Amino acid sequence: MVAYDTAVDSVDAQSTATVAAVPVQQTVPRRAWQTKYIRRLVLTDAFVVIAAVAAAQWLRFGDAGALVQSETLSNVSYGLISAALVALWLGMLSVFHTRSPRVVGSGPEEYRRIATATMRLFGIIAIAALLSRLELARLYLAIALPAGLLGLLLSRWVWRRIIAHKRAHGNLQTSVLVVGGRRSVRNLAESFARGTADGYSVVGVCVPGHSSRADETITVGGRSIPVLGSELDVVEALQKCGADTVAVTATEHLGHHGIRQMVWDLEDHEVELVVAPGMMDVSGPRLEMRPVAGLPLIHVEKPRYHGAKRFGKTSFDFIFALLALVLISPVLLATAVAVKSTSKGPVFYRSERMGLDGRPFQMLKFRSMVHGADRQVGSLMKNNEGAGLLFKLREDPRVTRVGRILRKFSIDELPQFINVLRREMSVVGPRPPLRAEVEAYDGEVHRRLLVKPGVTGLWQVSGRSDLSWEDSVRLDLSYVENWSMVGDMLIIAKTVKAVVAGEGAY
């Protein structure tokens, strides 16, 4: 059986000196760097909006003196309209909390709020213009809206890249004290460690039944995290580790009264309290908070694999694959010539893979190895570097010179768009599994077969060949549980970046 859940890690006894030596990665208090960051966002947003509106006015009218045509208002210049538009736009960005500390740097949610604020603003303008009989120039709005929205999204993307870079070097961190059972604490710490771009760093833990006098640590990712007491020692633990966020997981040890008491105890401290529900890889669209009988219950919607969503995905796959094949046809032709002229054998390599509901199909790739490479697997198996059931070699002697280039930039995968047109694959989906892999599946891993395998997917943008078997399974299951068209578009965008950089491919 494939190990998917992380086993409980033993708690290693350490000396007091070792516990004291565990570093807190955060060098600047979260509130301090967040305040500076939000100020910079305000300035950037203002610059982008002013530039977009000014450009729209200049391109349409050439100056600020042009007057608006109106049956109810007279002598209203576009200069005044532009000033009002800038003020309203910036106001809407604030009303929709696009610079809230809870969403800045979070990606999709931040972009969604910006897009929603902008579209609502122009909807209000359209209604106001209709009611007041203002004849606003369509070209003026047609330039300002897309230019401003694109500029705002691009500027936030740049700021996200800056934050991710700093967090990768241990800066701009949110230090976390985790409270819960040993298994849950360790799993949550591992999740935070994987999401380095989110900037959550566990600096201490409290586990039920632990004595504050015992010096112990939990090791996660090669880093020792001190155990600072039990669930009753949270306030004292905060003073020791300096965390600015308390994350509670496996709440059965605390109970309703215990969590309520903790909330009261933390009111006098400048820290945030978050509760991890213990569900892995379930995204926001499937979660809804509903108060029932005074309890904040999280309702989890079932994933939808049929109906309108599947029809929309199939339609998108067909159109995208058709356009892709047309646009990359010169690359396909040049690659076919290079493969055929540099080594003996067919241009395409056909590999049996398992598709939707476990149905086999022939996946197409440009041949990147010598002809008959499959017959050499047995002699090379002792050097296998692949994870789980996968056979991989970083320096595979069967790969041709042209094949190395094709693999580095994933050009050998491009014929799979033909599989998409045949409805055997999707543009985005889980990694196409081999028959041997599927036969070894056990339990939950079979859920990978609920959707079509993809030309790209979370596995493609998260390390590709460098992923462990467990991480590959986890990412595939996460995609199956949460797939959406918006998510697919984000994965496609990230795939382009990963392929251009040649990350994790061999």
Span of the ends, CA to CA: 27 Å
Net shape: globular
- How does the major sheet shape up? 4 strands, parallel
Q: What count of domains describes the coordinates?
A: 3
* Alpha plus pi helix count: 16
Low-confidence stretches at least 5 residues in length (pLDDT < 50)? 1-27
| Cα gyration radius (Å) | 27 Å
Concise synopsis of the structure shown:
With 506 residues, the protein is an alpha/beta fold. It has helices at residues 16-21, 30-60, 78-95, 108-132, 138-168, 182-194, 234-241, 255-266, 308-327, 329-342, 377-380, 401-408, 416-421, 435-440, 469-482, 485-501, and strands at 12-13, 69-70, 134-135, 174-179, 200-206, 216-220, 223-227, 245-249, 272-276, 287-292, 295-300, 348-354, 360-366, 426-428, 454-456. Helices cover 46% and strands 14% of the residues.
Written description of the protein model:
The chain is an alpha/beta fold and 506 residues long. The protein has three domains: 12-26 and 173-278, Rossmann fold (3-Layer(aba) Sandwich); 30-168, no CATH class; 308-501, no CATH class. The protein is 46% helix and 14% strand. It has 16 helices and 15 strands. The chain has helices at 16-21, 30-60, 78-95, 108-132, 138-168, 182-194, 234-241, 255-266, 308-327, 329-342, 377-380, 401-408, 416-421, 435-440, 469-482, 485-501, and strands at 12-13, 69-70, 134-135, 174-179, 200-206, 216-220, 223-227, 245-249, 272-276, 287-292, 295-300, 348-354, 360-366, 426-428, 454-456. Helix 3 crosses helix 4 (108-132). The protein is globular. The two termini are 27 Å apart.
